[in-house]
């Protein structure tokens, strides 16, 4: 929808309750005052990941400082489904994080595999991408983004009760709709996608031996890593997640 | 996969048959000689959308001119499923075209709706994006990209025998997995996605009256237009398209 003053949604960390006064961050103050050209009295929506969505009014107690006066709750808290997305960092990482946030991933986990070209991840920046995407797509939570881990640490730490679908680009995986059939939103699950160069053979061998892991495939074309991740998440949401019932925001 | 000389795939327009000699385009010559630093004798793969995939060798008859000597077919022709994607042009149009190509859309149709901000589409550039994506994802076809049309012309010209799933961001659409159930890859189908500002009410009214159109929804979050388009295509491929059987490229 087009952005109007009434539909500006911002994430805050403070508790939300009627009558609360919350200081805007410097970035929020800059965005509202200089980008959106709003001032005292402007209406915004606030969420913090656990208190639902609230209507608030901008107040400007002093030059360049900006507060939110919290008025009333307009939506109760609502979680996204408990879906995790683990991924080898790729060039278009910010894009992947943005789209995963929109599509309703709860937890993002960067994993350094053998053939991962990217050696450093700017976690603060990715968290900002996730927050902005959550603000825009009307989520009431921001996805959790964990510190990157090695592939070995990742498979060791993965909870045995959570199904791990890894995207096997060598063509050996089960078609995704079939692999997900029989699951439900209540079955804890996550996806793992490899880097541009694919998983190493030793990594595929290790994954195939894990009792909680299933190899899945996404058809005959070779998808870029970020495309595969988003396609897999979309399929899960459509078949098992919160796209299975008519939308009620 | 990492790009090696052997895995460079290029689209050509000429017929492919053993012994054929085909002139490379200037862009292909530049890419092979200057970007990939290849020369005479290098191995490449060629496809043209109807003769399958062929191994070929680079020859350099004169400075800056480059030919392909076609050796032998390594894959027979194979179409993508007959899925169309119509979309109001959005800011990230090149991204949308690239991802739709990877995901296996056969036909792309830009549609100017009332709230479409973009007024011109660079068709030549989009065709280049589609071609590059097809080269990289191992498709044997390049998606057809039609000239943009108005919304009115679009719904008038849509073939009545083809199901049109339009993404209804107002929340009234059927969950996508349910909407697609009962269909098959043999049922001609297409999606229509709106612009950032959504469809106008009159457009939604017109769509709802078409006997061949179905409103679909993608859950409770507000997806960006390009995210919605790609998610819908991924769901269709997984449920009805060529992701339903184990991959055999």
Q: Could you walk me through the main structural features you see in this protein, from its secondary elements to its overall organization?
A:
- The structure is a homodimer of 249-residue chains.
- Chain A has helices at 26-35, 93-103, 123-137, 151-157, 176-180, 201-209, 225-239, and strands spanning 9-11, 21-23, 43-47, 53-59, 67-75, 83-87, 107-112, 144-145, 149-150, 163-167, 174-175, 189-193, 213-217.
- Chain A is elongated, with a radius of gyration of 20 Å.
- Chain A has two domains: 5-75, Ribosomal Protein L25, Chain P, CATH 2.40.240; 83-239, SPOUT methyltransferase, trefoil knot domain (Alpha/beta knot).
- The model of chain A is unreliable at 1-5 (pLDDT under 50).
- In chain A, α2 runs parallel beside α3.
- The longest helix of chain A is centred in the middle third of the chain and has 15 residues, at 123-137.
- In chain A, the strands form two sheets. In chain A, strands 6, 7, 8, 9, 10, 11, 12 and 13 form an eight-stranded parallel β-sheet that branches. Chain A has a five-stranded mixed β-sheet with strand order 1-3-4-5-2.
- With 249 residues, the first copy, chain A, is α/β, with parallel strands linked by helices.
- Chains A and B meet through α2, β11, α5 and α7 of A and α2, β11, α5 and α7 of B.
């Amino acid at each position: 929808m087009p952005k109007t003053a009434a539909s500006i949604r911002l994430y805050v960390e403070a508790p939300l309750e009627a009558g609360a006064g919350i200081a805007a961050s410097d970035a929020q103050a800059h965005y509202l005052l200089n980008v959106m050209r709003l001032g005292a009295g402007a209406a915004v929506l606030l969420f913090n990941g656990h208190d639902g969505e609230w209507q608030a009014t901008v107040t400007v107690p002093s030059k360049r400082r900006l507060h939110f006066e919290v008025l009333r709750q307009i939506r109760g808290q609502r979680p996204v489904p408990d879906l995790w997305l683990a991924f080898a960092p790729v060039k278009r990482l910010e894009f992947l994080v943005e789209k995963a946030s929109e599509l309703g991933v709860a937890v993002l986990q960067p994993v350094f595999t053998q053939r991962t070209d990217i050696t450093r991840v700017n976690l603060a920046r990715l968290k900002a991408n996730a927050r902005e995407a959550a603000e825009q797509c009307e989520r009431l939570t921001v996805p959790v983004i964990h510190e990157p881990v090695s592939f070995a640490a990742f498979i060791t730490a993965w909870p045995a009760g959570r199904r791990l679908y890894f995207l096997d680009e060598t063509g050996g995986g089960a078609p995704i709709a079939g692999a997900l059939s029989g699951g439900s939103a209540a079955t804890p699950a996550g996806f793992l996608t490899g880097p541009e160069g694919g998983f190493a053979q030793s990594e595929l061998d290790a994954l195939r031996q894990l009792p909680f892991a299933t190899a899945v495939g996404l058809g005959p074309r070779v998808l870029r890593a970020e495309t595969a991740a988003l396609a897999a998440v979309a399929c899960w949401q459509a078949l098992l997640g919160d796209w299975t019932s008519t939308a009620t925001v």
